[in-house]
Amino acid sequence: MRFRPGASGLALLAVCSLTLAGCSAGSLGSSDSGGNGSIELTYLIGNQDQDVQEGNQIAKDFHAKNPNITVKLETRPAGSEGDNIVKTRLSTGDMPDVFAYNTGSLFQAIAPQKNLVSISDQPYIKDLDDNFKKTVTADNQVYGVPFGGFMGGAVLYNIPVYKKLGLTIPKTWADFMANNAKIKAAGGIAPVIQTYGETWTSQLFVLGDFHNVSAVDPSFADDYTANKAKYATNPAALKGFEHTEAVHDAGYENKDFASAKLPDGLKMLATGKGAHYPMLSGVVANMVATYPDAAKNVGLFALPGDDASKNGLTLWTPGGVYIPKTTTGDKLDAAKKFLAFIASPDGCDSQNKAGAPTGPYAVKGCSLGNDVPQAIKDMQPYLDKPGASSLALEFLSPVKGPSLEQITVEVGSGIRKAKDGAARYDDDVKKQAQQLGLAGW
Predict the structure, then answer these.
(1) Nearest of 148, 179, 159 to residue 2 by alpha carbon
(2) CA–CA separation, 299 and 284 (whole Å)
(3) β partners of residue 99
(4) Looking at the DSSP assignment, which residues form a beta bridge with residue 315?
(5) Hey, which residues does 314 pair with through a beta bridge?
(6) Which of 137, 147, 164, 316 has the most beta carbons within 10 angstroms of its beta carbon?
(7) CA distance 353 to 345
(8) Which H or E run contains 44?
(9) Which residues pair with 348 in a beta bridge?
(10) Is pLDDT of 403 > 90?
(11) Coil, helix or strand for 356?
């Protein structure tokens, strides 16, 4: 999975306009099925260029190790159209042998117990990251393997600026604001880049802060889903809105924060015109493609909270690869082999060939490779340290309102106070929770 704009409100990439017409994006090896003991699997994936490149590469490398199994790609659109196709094909028994789809609440929405093959008995399950496993588990059964890397909701920072001013990586919000004060005093550099010309980019101080929320209140996600906890009345959850307000009130934003867009923010960060950019790590590859020096000049640190000992990274998990229950017999055995390959160091190496990873892999023993941007390397220690990473709220609760990005723009622009913004967001989520039929709403 590449980050889904529709599910989270954080749109990283423009969705390709290709349509599903039973098209094959790539076919490797013989197209015969059943002849000479050969088996052909059809693998349904998203139609974005990177998805297709990675799908082709992993199909090719898997076939090289399993010459009797050929993997043929079929593509589907992203967004709500793709969601509907997945749900329809599962309900009609027309799903290809293997398919890639979302994790978390959208995974739960496709009724995995009814529609998918459990892989809990596979030996490689022990090598999957625990954060990922939570997002593909239903009734204590694991149904999917990860494809792609984690993304972090964090602060991207300019390393030369930090070196020039003698700054150290902050592990508390107070230290972060002290760094901002020193950067502002130095002159000529925006301490915090904001790009409200693309409203989705305004949400990171709230959504990326969830590790800090759950560190203080581990039950928040469950209580929030049950309508027992609110952003406006939970002190830990309110912090993200307060931080958004505080950065604006201190005058730490770039002067054009209201109109600047993502490419402007990445340029400021890469060229040292801005020091910090609260953002998803998924933008790093595009930044490096445009500004190659950013590979070594831009780093990453987790959004700091109040307690340095609990500092950690909020994670967005990669998508999953699943087997529908309509896959049976020899094809089921072949499909299980294909998932085992994806969930192995060989599978990660295959993905590395197709493009730079967005973040650390969710499979033990996988390497990011040698030519990975520093910001992506900076994520790995958080995953390696127990308790130093946790899932974004959207992977733990289906409750998310559509207006968060507009509300955080208002708070970050001085139009609305933090507590008022949080209360408005609490109201915003009601309709969705009621539509989902959640208890307590």
Answers:
(1) 148
(2) 10
(3) 44, 322
(4) 152, 391
(5) 153, 390
(6) 316
(7) 12
(8) strand 39-46
(9) none
(10) yes
(11) coil
Helix (H), strand (E), coil (C) string for 101-148: ECCCHHHHCCCHHHHECCCCCCHHHHHECHHHHHHCEECCEECCEEEC
Element (H, E) at 276: strand 274-280
Residue with tokens 């995953």: 383
What average pLDDT does this structure show over 371-376?
A: 93
Q: In the Cβ-directed half-sphere of 220, how many Cα atoms lie within 13 Å?
A: 25
As a residue count, the chain comes to 441
Q: What mean pLDDT comes out for the span 265-275?
A: 98
Residue 378 and residue 383: Cα distance in Å, rounded? 10
pLDDT at 25 over 50: no
Question: For residue 131, how far is the Cα from the chain centroid?
Answer: 12
Q: For residues 84 and 53, give the distance between their C-alpha atoms in angstroms, rounded to a whole number.
A: 24
Q: What is the dihedral of CA 348, 375, 315, 149, to 10 degrees?
A: -10
Q: What percent of the chain has pLDDT over 90?
A: 82
- Considering only the C-alpha atoms of the chain, give the largest distance between any 2 of them, rounded to a whole number of Å: 73
Residue 231 CB-half CA count within 13 A = 29
Taking each helix axis from N to C end, the angle separating 49-65 and 329-342, rounded to the nearest 10 degrees, works out to 110
Q: What is the chain's mean pLDDT, rounded?
A: 90
Cβ atoms within 10 A of the Cβ of 320, count?
29
What residues contact residue 198 under an 8 Å CB cut-off, 6+ apart? Answer: 11, 261, 262
Q: What is the dihedral of CA 118, 123, 124, 126, to 10 degrees?
A: 90
Amino acid at 259: S
Residue 40's pLDDT is 98
User: How many C-beta atoms surround the C-beta of residue 372 within 10 A?
Assistant: 22
Query: Which amino acid type is present at position 402?
Result: P
Residue matched to tokens 């070196």: 163
CA triplet 424, 224, 140: central angle to 5 degrees? Answer: 150
CB contact at 8 A, 194 and 200: no
Two tokens, residue 309: 């000992």
Angle separating helix axes 235-249 and 404-412, nearest 10 degrees: 50
CB 318 within 8 A of CB 51: no
Structure tokens at 69: 């199994």
Residue 356 binned pLDDT confidence (cut-offs 50, 70, 90): confident
Q: What is the pLDDT of residues 109-150, one digit of tens each?
A: 899 999 999 999 999 999 999 999 999 999 999 999 999 999
Partners of residue 276 on adjacent β-strands = 157, 192
- CA–CA separation, 176 and 157 (whole Å): 11
